[in-house]
Amino acid sequence: MRLTLPIALSLSVLAAAASSQSIGDLTAGEKVFKNCAGCHQVGDTARNGVGPVLSDVVGRVAGTYTDFRYGSDMIAAGVAGLVWTPDQMFEYLENPRDFLRAFLNNDRARAKMSFRLRREQDRLDVIAYLASFEIAALSSNICVTNNSDESYFFAVDDGGTASNSRVTAQLAPGESLCNAAKNPTGGFVSVFENAQALEGCSRLVNAGESDDLVSYAEFDRCRWVSHSG
Ligand code: HEC
Questions:
Q1: Ligand 1 mean position to 139 CA, how many Å?
Q2: C-alpha span between 116 and 54 (Å, rounded)
Q3: 62: CA distance to ligand 1 center in Å?
Q4: How far apart are CA 210 and CA 228, in angstroms?
Q5: Calpha distance 14→132 (Å, rounded)
Q6: pLDDT at 1
């Protein structure tokens, strides 16, 4: 799923990162991506092909997408600290081999990606396109599970600004409640003794994370456990 709303955010991220360069155009980038699509997939159902999935590539440590067989030099670059910021990708796409050689300071480094994208504007555009998936990837669920042995009233706030940013439910032990995160920095979950209670326990949760309530003692005294997914 791609959201249209947070695109301004991804563009400002790019603007900050690509400082001296002009900003990429998302729609144009979608067209440029046709050059990549023979080897790379994006979106919810993306799978590895000749190249790795690129849905959440912005911010990824190079060479780390699950179950893709990278070249040893790409893995070495990730180990040496290469993260795919828009700036790094901009350089990489121009000439993957030269980029890896320079980054690793190794004249014999090899790139498994043979494709080169020379036009600067094409590179900016395709990066803007890929960054829109990065934001969508952040916009995953925030969940809470009642892992205590009593029933309580829960709320999950999506971190957005809409008036309906929160879902609530009475959860029996073992039950969960989720909400689609609207903010890259996450939202929060709360638990109350019952639906009428005004005070309970709250906790900030990152997008894509789940929190388990382990026990509820009283206002502001709860035990939680966080985990991803
Ligand atoms: C002919 C196939 C092919 C094409 C076309 C291609 N790539 Fe790739 N790409 C690869 C392969 C293979 C790798 C893995 C490189 C390695 O392991 O050295 C890769 C790696 C990458 C990575 C690093 C990902 C990671 O997880 O570290 C990025 C970013 C990338 N490609 C972007 C693009 C973009 C954007 C385009 C289109 C403009 C494109 N590629 C076109 C085959 C391709």
A1: 24
A2: 16
A3: 11
A4: 6
A5: 11
A6: 35
Q: What is the mean pLDDT of the chain?
A: 83
Residue 207 in contact with residue 228, Cβ under 8 Å? Answer: no
* Local structure of 180: helix, strand or coil: strand
Indicate if the alpha-carbon torsion angle 119, 82, 204, 170 is positive or negative: positive
Q: Which two tokens stand for residue 97?
A: 């081999």
Closest to 168 (Cα-Cα) out of 185, 191, 187: 191
Q: Assess contact for 14 and 127: CB atoms under 8 A.
A: yes
Question: Is 148:173 a contact under the CB 8 Å cutoff?
Answer: yes
Stated pTM of the model = 0.63
For 22, residues 6+ apart whose C-beta sits below 8 A from its C-beta are: 121, 124
Residue of higher predicted confidence among 97 and 215: 97
**Hey, what amino acid is at 54?**
L
Mutate to test the pocket of ligand 1, among 39, 82, 124, 127 (most ligand atoms within 8 A of CB): 39
